[in-house]
C-alpha cells in the first residue's frame, strides 16, 4: 500500500511539472492598477511585480505593485530588490497574496521583443517554474482596443537558450527546428471579478450602453498610429539588413579560410611527397598553431530572430488598423451618400 501511495505521489508530481499553462486569470483590480501605472508615465516605460497563485493550468494574478523609477544620478544598488522584499513583507502582514508569478511592463507600439526581456525571463525561471510577463501598450489602447497580452518563453526556446548559453548558431536552430515564431507564446487572459464587484459595477452602469471605448473605435484619424508603426517597421528593416550583412561577412571569411586551408594542405602534401622520396618522415597535414586553422566564431542569430518577430508584430498591427480604417471610411462614405 505504501509503494502504491509513493507511486501515486510521484505520478502527481510529474504531472504537475509537465502541466502546460493554459490561461492567465487576472483580477479586475490588478488590471486597473497596471493600466493606471502605465498610462500615468507614458510614453516612459515602466515595470511592476505580479503577485498571485499558480493553480494547475491556471495562473492567477490577484495583485500587483509598481517598481520605482530611478533618476540617472541615483546610485544603482540592491535597493530595487530590497524594495520588492519590503513590499511583499507588508502585503503578507495584511494577508494579501505575496507569491511572485511574474512581472508587467509597458511598451510602445508593441516593441517588446528584446534580448533584455529574454534575460529577465531566464532570471525569473531560476526561482519560479512558471511565470508570465503582462505587456500593456497605452498607445495601442488609445485606438479603442485593450492592448493587454500575457507572454512567456516557449519550452523549446528555453532549453536551447540554456544549452547554448545564449549563443544561437544556425546548426543548433536546425537541430531543434526552431524559428522566430517559436520564441514567445501568448497565453489567453481572463479577467475575473468577485460577485460583489460585478453587482456593484452593474449598479454603476449607465443607462446608455455606449462607452468611451465605443467612441474611440469610431475615430477616423489613424495617421499618427500608422506613421509611428511604419517608422518602427523601417528601423527594424534596417536592423535586419545589418544582421544580414554580419552573416554575409562571416560566410565570406569562412570561404576565404577554407581556400587558404586547401592551399596550405596542397603545399604540405607536395612537401611530404618530396620528403618521402628523400627518405624523411612526412610532416603532419594539420597545424593547430596556424591561424588559418582557427575556427571563426559564427555570429548569434538571436538578434535576427527577435527583429523578425518584431517586424511580424508591426505588420500585424498595421494590417489590423488599416482594415479597420477602410471599414470606417466606407461606412462614412455610405452615410454621406445617403
Give a quick rundown of the structure.
The protein is α/β, with parallel strands linked by helices. The protein contains eleven helices and eight strands.
Brief descriptors of the model:
Eukaryotic translation initiation factor 3 subunit H; Cytidine Deaminase, domain 2; metallopeptidase activity; single chain; JAMM/MPN+_dom; 338 residues; eIF3h; alpha/beta; 11 helices; JAMM_MPN+_peptidase_M67A
The rounded distance between the terminal residues' Cα atoms is: 81 Å
CATH topology-level name of the largest domain: Cytidine Deaminase, domain 2
Total helical segments: 11
| Radius of gyration over all CA atoms, rounded | 28 Å
The dominant shape is elongated
CATH architecture of the largest domain: 3-Layer(aba) Sandwich
Please name the fourth-level CATH homologous superfamily of the largest domain. Answer: Cytidine Deaminase, domain 2
The amount of beta strand, in percent, is: 5-15%
Sheet/helix structural class: alpha/beta
Query: Within the largest sheet, what's the order of strands?
Result: 7-6-5-4-2-3-1-8
